[in-house]
Amino acid sequence: MPLTKAYGFFLSVLLAAETSFVSAFYVPGVAPLTFKSGEEVPLKVNALTSTRTQIPRDYYRLPFCVPDGGPKMASENLGEFLTGNKIQSSPYELHMLTETFCRKVCQITLSKLQAAKLRLHIKYQYRNNWIIDNLPSASISRGQENEPLKRYAGGFQIGFLAGDSEMPYVNNHVNIYVDYHKYEDEGYRVVGFAVEPLSVKHEFQDYNWDGENPEGYQKPLKTCSSNKHIQRGDIKTGQVVAENEKILYTYDVIWMESEIEWSSRWDVYLSEDHLVPAQVHWYSITNSILVVVFLSFLVVSILVRNLRRDIAAYNALSAIADEEEEDEKEDEKGWKLVHADVFRPPQEQPMLYCVFLGSGAQLLVTVLFAIVLSAVGFLSPARRGSLMTAFLVVYMLSGVFAGYISSRLYKAFRGRQWQLCTVITALLFPGIAFGTFVFFNIILFFLHSSASAPFLDVIIVAAMWCCVSIPLVFVGAYFGYKAEAIAFPTVTSTIARAIPEPTNFFMQPRVAVVMAGAIPFVAAYVELFFIMTSLWMDQFYYVFGFTLIVYLIMIITCAEITVLLVYYQLCAENHRWWWFSFFSAGSSAGFTFIYSIFWFRQLAASRMVMTYLLYFGYMFLICFGMLLAFGTVGALTSLWFVRKIFGTIKVD
């Protein structure tokens, strides 16, 4: 029956994963915008991004055209600011169903500083991120046979370096393709948006424009027509980036009717037009499930069989007459011998152990809720920053779990400094995370990066931490200390039992800890690749159904492998299992960090020190969170297991 229930559970989650992968859906409240023919369709610009530097830049820090009256900030939520989004108005004017041919935006004469700045950003492969009706711009390039190639994530390049001379060229002309769907008696809705960037050295017909005279906007150009859209083959000379170069920015707008409905317009973005087949994710899930099934059979075959035999033997010894008991005890061996020491509190840092488990429980609940909300569609990519906002809110509210777990354990250890334990639980991981964020935020501020969150938003995060999370930790700790202490089935002796030397190399605790982390990592490494790509290479990731399955599989794997190893350590008469169980399950974080070091090469990162600091700093923070979360799984599962087996035997 348990296996049947487990199979049914995995089947239901797999169906949910398939649903979340096949279709994208929206949160109630994301209302569609309907435009009439000729009505203005606003085009907004977001921060410039580069996978090579990982440092977003404000769009208008480069010599690009500015709208009349200056750019205006779009209303943004907390999550957008924290993730480096900076959405502003643009000078590009689009009107529904109105074709535009080579329209001039502005002309800029590059100074020495502007030319150097633009050249550097082109070298680091910065990309524009434009938005129409909340849809990010796809990028259109051309293949070897001039066939159009679309990339739906990461925006489009601001320029390029010539292959032979390394001369920088700026993409000063864009063909804007907008797909629309017609709704009878309602109007038109935008269902697709793509940009084809082109570099064109524009020339006027017998006219020299200074970039300021209004009549220059009406003068014809030799390089483009007023009734024909520019094609890549029509371009004779690209626009080079150099001091005193005059760069004329122009654009075409092409409207195309589409059968795609508004509710399905994000599908192609999330699947990258099926660039990554669903079979890859299914392979990842199948690989993970096989690991779990293998481990489950291993645990059942070893633990259940051995435990039944051990428990029966130990209880039989207890039934022997008093005059024979002493002789029989000489033959005792195995995990029963440590019954007087197995529940002895950790000799090293028992308070820190409780703090780690409380923090890990808070992270476990937060990640689970965030993934579930994303998988069922409550966190839509149409709402930028919603995942970050939800993560922060759930994490703050989950502080009650951290306080409760740490206080229950600390009370079981007979700790007396419960106030200090609660304070450290409330401050440790959030403090490290907030300190890391503020440190990077200050550096990014001096680097003039848009990833630097405004001071007000930093204050809001700090207020959420101090006024919500910390009080909830104390609330949880209050209920934890008020609850009855965890009852242990055996009495702990006054003097600790000596631990014998390991019988072989693999029974050494440090070796076992390292080996234990490899198995959960193997169960999740395929999906981890896609998560890393989304996190650091500006790719969309929305197959959270698969993520939920992998997350649950990692929890199960960590629990099973830790219980198995703790059993063998107890059989070897090693009663110091508290920290061992924590690090055995949490060591998968170490493998993840090592994997991130090798994966870093895919970014082709710049030599900027800040790029390395950002990447490895945040990856260390993520892996430390993994250590706490999965270590908590292993420790709590082992606590349940040890209490269970020692509660089934009779001891004096």
Number of strands: 14
Q: Whole-number radius of gyration?
A: 31 Å
> Roughly what fraction of the amino acids lie in strands?
5-15%
Biggest sheet features? 6 strands, mixed
The general outline is elongated
Q: What is the distance, rounded to the nearest whole angstrom, between the alpha carbons of the first and last residues? A: 36 Å
Count of helical stretches = 16
Oligomeric state of this protein: single chain
Q: Decide which structural class fits the backbone.
A: alpha+beta
Average residue pLDDT: 83
Low-confidence stretches: 1-29, 325-331
Order of helices and strands: HEHEEHEEEEEEEEEEEHHHHHHHHHHHHH
Estimated helix fraction = 40-55%
Structure notes:
This protein has 16 helices and 14 strands. By secondary structure, the chain is of the alpha+beta class.
Q: Which descriptors apply to this entry?
A:
16 helices; 652 residues; four-stranded antiparallel β-sheet; 14 strands; six-stranded mixed β-sheet; alpha+beta; elongated; disordered N terminus
Q: How would you summarize the topology of this molecule?
A:
Blueprint: H1 2-22, E1 43-45, H2 78-82, E2 88-89, E3 100-109, H3 112-123, E4 127-128, E5 130-132, E6 135-136, E7 138-142, E8 148-151, E9 156-157, E10 159-161, E11 168-170, E12 173-183, E13 187-198, E14 246-257, H4 267-270, H5 278-318, H6 322-329, H7 350-375, H8 386-397, H9 399-412, H10 418-446, H11 455-482, H12 509-536, H13 544-571, H14 578-586, H15 588-599, H16 609-646
Parallel strand pairs: 7-13, 12-14
Antiparallel strand pairs: 1-2, 1-5, 3-14, 4-9, 5-6, 7-8, 10-11, 12-13
Helix pairs in contact: 1-13, 5-12, 5-13, 7-8, 7-9, 7-10, 7-13, 7-16, 8-11, 9-10, 9-11, 10-11, 10-16, 12-13, 12-14, 12-15, 13-14, 13-16, 14-16, 15-16
